[in-house]
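Morning. Coffee machine broken again, so started the prediction first thing and wrote up yesterday's gels while waiting. Chain of 674 residues, entered below exactly as on the submission form.
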Amino acid sequence: MHRSLFLTVLAGAALMAACQKPVPATQDGTDLWLAAGRPYGEVLASVQTAVDPALPAEGYHIYDADGARHIDAGSEAGLRYGVYALQRAEVLGQAGPGIDVQEAPYYNLRLLNHWDNLDDTVERGYAGKSMWEWTSPDIPEARIRHYAELCASVGINGSVLNNVNANPLILDAEHIARVAKIAAILREYGIKTYLSIKWTSPIALSGLKSGDPLDRKVRKWWQDKAAEIYAAIPDFGGFLVKANSEGQAGPQDYGRTHADGANMLGEALAPYGGIVMWRAFVYSPTSPDRANQAVEEFLPLDGQFADNVIVQIKNGPIDFQPREPFSPLFGKLHDTQMMMEFQITQEYLGFSNHLAYHGTTWEECLDADTYRDGAGSTVAKMVTAIAGVANTGQDPNFCGYVFAQANWYAYGRLAWNPELGAEEIADEWVRQTFLRPDGMSEAAFSARFVAPVRDMLMASREAVVNYEMPLGLHHLFGGTHYGPMPWERLARPDWTPAYYHKADSAGIGFDRTRGGSDNVSQYNEPLASQFDDVATCPEELLLWFHHLPWDYRMKSGRTLWDEICLHYDAGVRQVEAFRRTWAGLEPYVAPALFAETAARLEIQQHDAEWWRDACVGYFQTFSQRPLPQEALPLGLPVDSLLFKVLRSDGLGMPVHDADRRPVLVDFRNFRRPQ
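Came back before lunch.
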């Protein structure tokens, strides 16, 4: 009798335990960070709204009064942002009784730059073909609406639809009509439409003989084209321009300046309220230091740009490297509007295969002090607008990988408020993206799932820096920008890794001190002296600014060579730790998302090992030193990698084998055309 009772109690306890076991939700990542919130319409219906002209145009005020919840805003756009803010607050547990939140965006212009081509390819796109489907007879309305909802939910209010390496056909009548249809949808969500233009468009489309910005016929052509665009799209935002950069034509071809070219376009757009975003990404193959060129070309033009022209500057002086110092141009221009350009798509951080959260990258840049107007002159305060190169495509989840979505979200949140912390944003994204399992309390979900995933995100960018380009090394990749090829030789020296790492028997690193290229002098004091002195230069930027002996003694007491090796090892070990962490989270996450992430992390580990083997092995041929005792042995000898290139698919994505290792092929075996 007692035994029977015992078994009954035991069975009951087992049943209770089974009932309490978390049951992962079913989701596939296609809702992105809107997965956990109430639908927009439902949130809107639950509040009383009013437009209050006293509030900033895009600002909102959420509060409780007279037994009801209210959202007041300075405009319809502000009301939309307020509804999404309330939706987010509900998911985060911050929407209890007595809520009182008032916000307005820090920047008026918060844009995505799409590098989409008219043949539906996407330059540096890793999520399928162009989401705009340029070659299709019809526009993909459902996808565009979903995209617009996601943008509006984080406050993005502008979209440049096409690649900065523009096709002039984007300005023909057929494409303007198509863009007008897209703009009509985006307009409903408070998003303005912009286009990238090619400098030679008047020549290509109308047979003009010149692109000289001071030529009367050229100016008239752009004025007429602006009138044509605004007739179709009354709220058109303006032009993004890449000129005299990487072989693109521009005003310098005619003996004119960047200001001459930008102001000519600004003149055409000014009657309609349009703007020109003129990119400062310029460099010449003859320069001894590519990092110097933006300041060299744009500082003499400070104060010469029209009021509706903004100079758009990449966050670093080279090109979206895993780590760069901020561009010194942010601290030099006083009388020119500046716009930040971040890259959401992971061109140099493993495409959509690697976990690499850019919230920490961008926080590091925005918080950096330029000292332009004294201490506290952060990069965030120097710029008046912000743009991010998008990572979207036709993939059902838009970004090709659920964790790549975090960068789109983080960009939007920082564009709205650059004072937000990367960790806070990561926490928001996890809670809104991954649904809490049935049978699991909010506290348990926070501790067992949210916290470890947030920690993975926060460590991920540094892991990529470690296994790709630590201690200020940069530009060590091959032509695809995916894998390591520090030995590669290309036609242009400034496209060649050796131009940047300068490894030799004496040491490694780019000498940008006052005795070298003098890039340090483009920074304001005290940064110039800090970067110039090897004793005070931050170690994470050491080889960016200094060429040092292999036996240089680091702060850890180790030699530079040993430190380089151990950083590469650390990156590999960090990814191994991510895999272990994720494996332990399987009970709490939808099977589809678990499997996708587990596969990508395995790819990332093998890629990290490839980076370590290639870079450490190659640099060892110069250092002639053994690996430190605590370092992992190299998996592949460097001689086996020197003539290998990564196989890519038709869309430029790297190919991995059944074991999720990169497929490397000997380029000497490629058949050349007869």
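The domain at 32-103 is CATH 3.30.379.10 (Chitobiase; domain 2). Going to sketch it on the whiteboard this afternoon.
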